[in-house]
Design goal:
single chain; about 450 residues; alpha/beta; 10-stranded mixed sheet; 5-stranded antiparallel sheet; 16 helices; binds S-adenosyl-L-homocysteine
């Protein structure tokens, strides 16, 4: 279904899509094989813990491996990019972040252009998406001229937050020496916007905010449950009986608090993964959006409550045994969007999930590509552009594996009330449609 967008938004999207500003090109290389780097201290820490208190849940295993403040995979590493363990859409092409920038501005306009706009990114990685979004905001400066915009980054990794600061502020951001302050780093972006770093969403100030989370929810710890003849049992991580330096999965012999609380009544699958932490974060987003206004855009690989065992590891762009050399590989699980929708509750409207291919095409990626190709004479860059477009949109690559899901203020999708016609006029028969949401509806520029 095509929908007409309002004239202002239409002009804005068109202005951006056809602009010739190209930013910087990112190179999308094939994977590099890396030497196996065992992380003995992580394994030692985990086995000592299991010996002391018994098998740990998969969620605790994931949390320790990924975000332990000393040894955590995300805390120590820069894992993103061709030389790392995995590559993400914002790293593949600047167009991705730019279209998200356009989405943010259209949602801000649809909310009635509030005077203050907090852009909040959860898990910003190398800061590429934020950088591309900021470039779009810079290009649309005149549209945002009466709005005070600030950037808020929720990042658990000191290594990555250092990279983000370098990229977004040219290294001028200052670390906060007061360790009790929830803002652990702050500065000004190269376009002069205030930017702050936090360890948790709880610490981000209240106020009209647009939240973006790209490949963030898949990194949060999941619990795994198996249906057995005696009911649901939680899958735990234990030490191998014959080899004390190896880990194995076991089923808890009796119900755990998590298996009792987290498996839905009437669940039809025989194995389920539940990301309780992701559920709590979505509840926070939902509360903030309903009370303070704004929207959230969540993009990740995932399913709508249909998949079972999706827990996996990535190292050097290849699948990696999740229990082998913990700390040396990324651990991830598909996002269950049906669970996020349930956790969001009735206080917000949920849109999606829709595939990345559909979202990007609805946002005008084809028009943007044509303009960039028209303005590009370098054959190798043209090839690069075409390859990255294919990586983002091809159904066999990221096009159908990744999905977009949005939380919106309830008023955003509400049908404008039918006004009583002045006396003498006939009653309007058609109810005016709610304004479309960019990306989730194909926009027509007529
Ligand atoms: N959004 C980026 C990076 C994805 S990797 C991109 O698409 O390129 C996941 C990101 O989330 C990393 O920045 C990681 O450090 C961060 N992260 C993981 N767990 C987190 C947590 N519990 N709290 C805050 N940030 C977290």
């Amino acid at each position: 279904m095509r929908s007409l967008i309002n004239v202002q938004t239409q002009l804005l999207v068109r202005r951006f899509l056809t602009s010739s500003t190209a930013g910087r090109w990112r190179l999308f290389c094939s994977s590099s094989s890396e030497e196996e780097m065992p992380q003995p201290s992580v394994l030692r820490h985990l086995t000592a813990k299991i010996k002391a208190t018994g098998p740990i849940s998969v969620a605790e295993y994931m949390r320790e491996v990924l975000t332990n403040p000393v040894t955590g995979y995300y805390v120590r590493n820069n894992m993103l990019g061709p030389e790392g363990d995995f590559i993400t859409s914002p790293e593949i092409s600047q167009i991705f972040g730019e279209l998200i920038g356009v989405w943010i501005v259209t949602e801000w306009i649809s909310a009635g252009r509030p005077k203050r706009l907090q852009l909040v990114e959860l898990g910003p990685g190398k800061g590429s998406l934020a950088e591309d979004v900021l470039r779009v905001l810079g290009q649309l400066r005149s549209v945002l001229s009466h709005c005070s915009v600030s950037l808020h980054l929720v990042e658990v990794s000191p290594a990555l937050s250092g990279l983000q600061a370098l990229r977004l502020t040219g290294g001028s951001a200052q670390e906060n020496q007061n360790h009790h302050d929830p803002v652990y780093r702050q500065g000004l972006t190269s376009t002069g916007l205030p930017v702050c770093w936090y360890r948790s969403l709880d610490d981000v100030p209240e106020g009209f905010s647009i939240f973006v989370a790209h490949e963030f929810f898949d990194a949060l710890p999941i619990h795994k449950f198996q249906r057995t003849q005696s009911g649901w049992r939680e899958m735990m991580v234990d030490i191998e009986l014959e080899n004390p330096d190896k880990l194995r999965f076991v089923l808890s012999p009796s119900p755990t608090l998590a298996s009792t609380a987290l498996v839905q009544e009437g669940e039809g699958r025989s194995h389920v993964e539940v990301c309780a932490e992701g559920g709590v974060i979505v509840q926070q987003l939902s509360r903030r959006i309903s009370e303070e206004g704004g929207a959230a855009l969540i993009a990740d690989y995932g399913h709508d409550g249909t998949k079972t065992d999706t827990f996996r590891g990535f190292k050097g762009h290849r699948l990696h045994d999740v229990l082998a050399s913990p700390g040396s590989a990324d651990l991830t699980a598909d996002v269950d969007f049906s669970f996020l929708r349930r956790m969001a509750g009735d206080g917000v409207a949920c849109l999606g999930p829709i595939t990345q291919r559909v979202f990007l095409k609805n946002m005008g990626i084809d028009t943007r590509m044509q303009v960039l190709l028209r303005n590009c004479v370098d054959a190798s860059i043209r090839k690069q552009l075409i390859n990255s477009y294919d990586a983002l949109t091809n159904p066999d690559r990221m096009g159908e594996r990744f999905h977009f899901f949005s939380l919106l203020h309830l008023s955003r999708l509400a049908t404008p009330p039918n006004t009583t016609p002045p006396e003498g006029l006939t009653l309007q028969k058609k109810t005016p449609a709610a304004p479309p949401v960019a990306g989730f509806t194909e926009l027509s520029f007529s």
